[in-house]
Amino acid sequence: MSGRLVLLPGDGIGPEVVKSACCVLEHINSLGRGYTTEEDLVGGAAYEAHGVPLHADTLARAKQADAVLLGAVGGPQWESLPFDKRPERGLLALRKELDLFANLRPAIVFDALAGASTLKPEVVKGLDILIVRELTGGIYFGEPRGVDKDAQGRIGRNTLVYHEDEIRRVVRLAFDMARLRNKRVCSVDKANVLECTELWRDVTNEVHKDYQDVALTHMYVDNAAMQLVRAPAQFDVMVTTNMFGDILSDEASMLTGSLGMLPSASLGASAEDVGKSRPGLYEPVHGSAPDIAGMDKANPLATILSLALLLRYSFHDEGAARAIEQSVERCLAEGYRCADIDEGTGACLGTQAMGEKVAGYLETFWT
Ligand code: NAD
Ligand code: IPM
Ligand code: MN
């Protein structure tokens, strides 16, 4: 098993969590794999070096890679830049240019962390939800957009727009994923108010005709936000628009104990075909956490678990992916914690020490 990874650490805690994940990858290589890495800039770091948040050469390099592992982008120092220069635009351009239309955000509660959630342990124990977020369309990319003026004053605009094909391909992928799990899909929309999401609902019902073995329900997004904290175990796969998925996945992260636990995989093809036409992009759900950047305090597990998804989806290296996930589980069961999930039950580790701890268990689970 071998392949070429491009690492885009980005800003804030991004470089720290990616470095920690690299420690895990190095151990995987020492166990007989041959994954190579090259590093490049994205976000604020790219802006400082090149004046743009995603340089054309970086994009070309990402397109040629087998997979991309990204840390996080953004920070207060770049917030007053024009929108097209902001770090976040670099990430959005990368997703769009690689046509990564489906963002998988699994929210899994490790047994050892059931007490770390702000919700009651009996509500979150054993939880395993997959949020499938549409990633290259919707209000994030719709035109017209921007702020202009009329006689009365300034007007701000963003546009929620979906073509039926964009809905169909991501919903199809969600049904495919559900078939590998508990065969339940909940599609989240605001069809009572937004015409665009009524189309989302109609197309989802059409796609469902090919997936009669999967149970489909629909839920309005306001109710879904409430149900996620009231009774999250009712969900198996949730599929939704770009912005609703962004918000619901941060909410779901708190079921798992912390935003620092949630990995993601952005795919541009069905799970079997990932990597054949374009690379997948793997990144933690959290941001650059400027409040703790540079302090070795960030939890690297979301990035380490993203590396596991990378090995699973882009390289079909289930052995290494499972070894990482089981090592993370073992670390948590042994009581090791980062500050964000610390309940005072064991040793509280820094970002790098947690990566080394996970790496140290890999051999135990190597098959
Ligand atoms: P954030 O996710 O960076 O941080 C929210 C809170 O969670 C903070 O208190 C932070 O300390 C904590 N946190 C996040 N990740 C953590 C980790 N791994 N371990 C421990 N604690 C963690 O969100 P924000 O503060 O709203 O945004 C900060 C910047 O990050 C902004 O510029 C935003 O645009 C950017 N952002 C980037 C991404 C991305 O690159 N994918 C995602 C979200 C936000
Ligand atoms: C995420 C982030 C990004 C998003 C930002 C940084 C562009 O919040 O990946 O969840 O909104 O998609
Ligand atoms: Mn987000």
Q: Can you describe what's shown?
A:
- The strands form 2 sheets. Strands 2-1-3-12-11-4-5-10-8-9 form a 10-stranded mixed β-sheet, with helices on both faces. It has a two-stranded antiparallel sheet with strand order 6-7.
- It has 2 domains: 1-104 and 262-367, Isopropylmalate Dehydrogenase (3-Layer(aba) Sandwich), CATH 3.40.718.10; 128-254, Isopropylmalate Dehydrogenase, CATH 3.40.718.
- Helix 1 (14-30) packs across helix 10, helix 1 runs parallel beside helix 12 (351-361) and helix 6 (164-179) crosses helix 7 (195-208).
- The protein has helices at residues 14-30, 44-50, 56-64, 87-97, 121-124, 164-179, 195-208, 221-230, 242-253, 301-315, 318-333, 351-361; strands at 2-10, 34-39, 67-72, 102-108, 128-134, 142-150, 153-159, 184-189, 215-220, 237-240, 265-267, 280-282.
- 51% of the residues are buried.
- The two termini are 13 Å apart.
- With 367 residues, the protein is of the alpha/beta class.
- Helix content is 39%, strand content 20%.
- The protein has 12 helices and 12 strands.
- It binds nicotinamide-adenine-dinucleotide (NAD), 3-isopropylmalic acid and manganese (II) ion.
Short characterization:
The chain is α/β, with parallel strands linked by helices.
